[in-house]
């Protein structure tokens, strides 16, 4: 049986958004996949550990500066450069970005591990529904966004998701789809809470596979209770989406043609 160490970093530095539960989701999914997952919480720089997966999350801009300072005082950058996987959620993504903007409008430097810059934008709050991604073996997933930020991917880094519903990065891909997050090497960045991995075990599979160096697809492993809850949540989000905004669910190029 394989063994992975998952470290949750400085969970009290920012406003909690249940992201620490992503570690528990990896333990459960790992057990189902024959992987023993050991979890560690790092709340001081001197308790930093070498791990296979690092989780950093939270929401809001108030604690990002403190989170950057805390992360800078650790060996995280070297570990990620050497191949450890980093899942950075929302405030965590700000902290590991190239730069972000604090509540006063001042641009601040992040750790630079994720090839993105962050800019102010209109506030977006609500359920997000992603489009299936066969290349990553991901079905339609769901999560919750609540931020006033635009995430600009750089150096050609691909998005983690394209969206059916939600504001995401406030950017589109070449096909005109709204994008969300970033997937760059061993760094996975997203704004989505949930907790994301508990709501979407297939994404937990992606994290586990990359951390374990697995290249072949996992066998299908459904979790009926999670699948029912997710299906219901996606159906409710689709139902509650304003009818007047139905064009937003189409690729931008298709929607543009309908206005001609």
Classify the beta-strand content into a percent band: 25-35%
From the alpha carbons, calculate the radius of gyration and give it in angstroms. Answer: 18 Å
| Strand/helix succession | EHEEHHEHEEEEEEEEHHHH
SS-derived structural category: alpha/beta
Give the strand tally.
12
Low-confidence sequence ranges: none
Assembly state (oligomeric)? single chain
Secondary structure tally, helices: 8
Share of residues in helices: 25-40%
Overall outline: globular
Distance between the termini: 59 Å
Strand order of the largest sheet: 2-1-3-4-12-11
Q: Describe the biggest sheet?
A: 6 strands, mixed
Description:
- With 260 residues, this protein is α/β, with parallel strands linked by helices.
- Helix content is 28%, strand content 28%.
- It has eight helices and twelve strands.
- The protein has helices at residues 21-32, 64-72, 76-81, 91-96, 196-199, 201-212, 224-240, 252-258, and strands at 2-9, 35-42, 53-56, 85-89, 99-101, 107-109, 116-130, 142-153, 161-165, 179-180, 182-184, 187-190.
- The strands form three sheets. The chain has a six-stranded mixed β-sheet. A four-stranded antiparallel β-sheet has the order 8-7-9-10. It has a two-stranded antiparallel sheet with strand order 5-6.
- A hairpin with a 2-residue loop joins strand 11 (182-184) and strand 12.
- Helix 1 (21-32) packs across helix 6 (201-212).
- The longest helix is centred in the C-terminal third of the chain and has 17 residues, at 224-240.
- The chain starts with a strand and ends with a helix.
